[in-house]
């Protein structure tokens, strides 16, 4: 009864307050949430359906969860249990949700990677994902079924830590979703990828960039016959002078590396993909597809309006995007500043290198860990792209292009005692049998790589050199951790992790187009232990 009353009060309040601000809604900081005294079960219902929306003024069908774009945020505390009942109401397509960065220890079948940890949810059916959140940090969720997240199925996933070592350094927090944005549906864009290589390979061009699902769009660029309204509006973040804000930046792009900044404000980096970093000051921060970075921003300016900026690094495409203004905006509005005016502030001018990450060598862990050695298994992965026999472009890892075995995922093959040595080479399967073994992976040439089921130490990167030339610079003492890291073009990346999470974990390029064209491997970790975990019948029953 009390809950009901509160809800009524809240909705009345929202109704009244939204009238007062006449649709010009500000995003206000979230106060630090009170930690529960014991772990909680957090339940969510995700109704996956298509809805027509116009986030930047251009109307299109968007694949949504509960009709929302961006999707509903998931918020939990360390050690909570999260249960998300996902119901597929798309009508004509399967779906599956991946919880990017959540390690799924003991629940590999809820990782959502179709053809690897399970099958997709057929239309009209549901699956309740049910897993723990032992690791605090900034994460996100997205569809892991045929580039579907590019049509809209993505949102934030925050795991709070009651003992967050940085809690005293900020007063409130914001989630800032950065994304490239396409007006064409994924099915059209996948068609572009299928053009013969002779036509000159290009990735689909984004039409815009969005911050928290908003930005303006120049409708004169929209094709004839489309529905487009100018000045759709920016996301507006409300600051109070003197307060300190943690901004959780999440890049949910199909492809883009995005440079983030706020005019006149320093960014203090404190987190990379759930890992605490020693305060590192910057003006502009690169965040690649799939990555998260937390920054603390101090509202130390006079009450005014400031541009928050995203910029797509157009140099990282095979061919420069057509018709794209790579710069996109939101507004930081100080309480007391003029309402409804665009800022007149100037951008930071710091030049950043193209197509590479935050330099892992200049970032230091807040709490250095003992990085395990010696290395048990050393893998070397060479990334490449070239046409196949049909003259279609494919992306290769060690000369093999990954193909999803949608209806018979590796996890099922393990449970069925399938002879894995007879597996199709296009499964790009690497098996680690020894629990606790230290795995080191050297990846060569150009692409942001994401590992499921783990985060990893970033021991080193090198640009315009071979791994052999750079190997002596590996940092095995104070390396930071991430779950998504960029392999520089004409360069290398070395990561290390411990095989301690029985399951099957994809390791793939987070540029969705490259992933769809085969740029993935899968790591089968401790199959003997995996077999002792019991796969829930409802997860298994999704497979035909
Ligand atoms: Cu964010 Cu395999 O994905
Ligand atoms: Cu790639």
UniProtKB/TrEMBL annotation:
Any Pfam family the entry gives: Cu-oxidase
Top-level taxon in the UniProt lineage: Eukaryota
Stretches assigned to the Plastocyanin-like domain: 48-163, 172-311, 415-528
InterPro entries cross-referenced by the UniProt entry: Cu-oxidase-like_N, Cu-oxidase_2nd, Cu-oxidase_C, Cu-oxidase_fam, Cu_oxidase_Cu_BS, Cupredoxin
Signal peptide stretch: 1-23
A GO MF term: oxidoreductase activity
Protein keywords: Copper, Metal-binding, Oxidoreductase, Signal
SUPFAM superfamilies: Cupredoxins (SSF49503)
Gene3D superfamilies: Cupredoxins - blue copper proteins
Protein family per UniProt: Belongs to the multicopper oxidase family.
PANTHER family to which the protein is assigned, alphabetical: LACCASE, MULTI-COPPER OXIDASE
Name by which UniProt lists this protein: 4808_t:CDS:1
